[in-house]
Design a protein that fits this description.
Length: 685
Amino acid sequence: MTFRATILVTAAFSLLSPLLCYAAPRVAPTQAVPHAAAGATVTWGHARFTVLTSRLIRMEWSADSHFEDRATLVFLNRHLPVPHFTKTSDANGITLETQDLTLTYHPDEQGQFTDKTLQITLKGGPTPVTWHAGQKDTANLLGTTRTLDGSSGSHLKSPMEDGLVSRSGWSVVDDSQSPVFSVSPKPVVRKTVVDGAWVEERTTAPHQDLYFFGYGHNYRQALTDYCAVAGRIPLPPRYAFGVWWSRYWSYTDQDLLSLVQQFHENSLPLDVMVVDMDWHLNEDQLKKRGLKDLSGHRLGWDGYTWNSTFFPNPTAFMAQLHAQGIKVALNLHPASGVQSWESAFPDMVKAMNMPENTQYVPFLITQKNYAQAYFSVLHHPLEKQGVDFWWLDWQQEKTTPIAGLNPTWWLNYLHFTDQERQGKRPLVFHRWGGLGNHRYQIGFSGDTISTWESLAFQPWFTATAANVGYAYWSHDIGGHSPGAIDPELYTRWVQYGVFSPIFRTHTTKNPEAERRIWAYPEPYSDILRASFRLRAELKPYLYTEARKTYDTGIAFNRPLYYDWPEENDAYTMPNEYIFGDNMVVAPIVQPVDPKTGLVQATLWVPPGQWVERSSGKTYTGPTKITQYFYLHQTPMLIKAGAIMPLEEAVSGQSAEPQRVMEIWPTSQKEKTSYNIYEDNGQGVE
């Protein structure tokens, strides 16, 4: 059995001060110094090598011997302590040797990196591993993908990208086509968009720009070093780890306030209210006016003008939510630009210096004047009314006029840095734009199909995103379409959501779709209530683990092989993952046996002592166990001796919730400890 101790908040800071730390992380995730430190680079002919760590080397080739010292979209900081390395050369070329790698470059007449001119050997291990330039990585452990739109399970419209770790022991990032920043992004608050770093195309001369990661199976160090050169994974505001409500529906302000009241009446926590597209003028209203969308997108999918029929006083509406401790997000499809019926249209035309008879302002996000007006004219006035952050739904194309830059990536950067300039701790809710987007959380995974296959895919998909540092995927709990869902499937999806980075329900605009947990019959309703409360209770643990993510570059929701890379079973249990340093979770993703009401599940118990939560039994790993689980149970292993910081699940956050510590038993004699991280939840240094 666990031991649970209640901690009075007033006494917590004095009694437990050794366990608490208060310094909020900086607004910007990395001090960017793109120039390498003196002594880190070696030039040979048309090639330049930068030894960033003993296991990470940048390799450039340029036909005109012009090398890039500006920050790219992915790599911001190359000014690291120079590791010890040696250089030897002869008539054929050079050899660079660090503690862990040996690089050999024997250029031909052109000097380009090919399998014949460049190779790197990893030292150590039972058998040396050698990589040749251009070699395909057949054992890459993958990263993530742009969106799960329309997917059911692993059947994706876009392929999974390679990750930064591989069972091969190495991975390579080809940064050759990545655009660059005009100036270095720095962690300072600037006044305007155009004062900050802007994007530019790379040189057109033939070139190669590769980063070789040779970490063997030390995946943790690979990600830590990646974040040292590519930027930290930012800490989201504390409220982001609570309960989010989202549904595509034509809600009025009174509908949403009534929904909040129902949360209170059911003693359920609620931290974030996401208002979908009908906060602005919708398709039916625009058609009745005889209006057309000149952007070529679907009418009514975007806009910056409140729907006065549904929201006659949006400032008062959001103030009522804020008074109850609830944050507000609004949905946007920015690619539609600004239409003539928008209240902000005249100001946008003026800001863009367009003729007075202009009928439409197109989406020109890579132009500085548009980006400036995009925030000052369209977003900031709404934020002053009470909008806390934006849900940037995906309607953009995949390219921009700047080669190598997609609009999703660029919007994430602009929105994140705009919040930095305002002195906020940023929160971006959008799609994955590609490598480097780990700096701009949180990901919206898209409109999945509501099937068991979709649910079964999400635990593996979410944990695997750690391989590119993308720590915060948010899924539509319950799936998106067709909306209607079996109560058992919804219950299991919610149970998984409790143990995912972001807990957000959602569904499409279908009257048969139900996401209000109190509207479900028993026993589902009680189980769903318990799940919502458990999520709220976990916030101190999640926030502490998220701070560790910021500090280390290692996502708290990660694959088993991060902690046990030499255990083969750590690679073969796709549904099982680490959820913070004290927990291993394996959500149920299939229906119960209709005769027994049970589901059989097999768990891999990692090395060490672990307590299976539902039974209270202690196991010593590595081993596998098979158990049967009821509908209300989620297979979970708690590290023996773990100290789990929890808090009371309250409806709204007007009062400070009571803090609780769970201490899990252990037969081992060594002491255990756990450092809790707390700050004001959304501030910055």
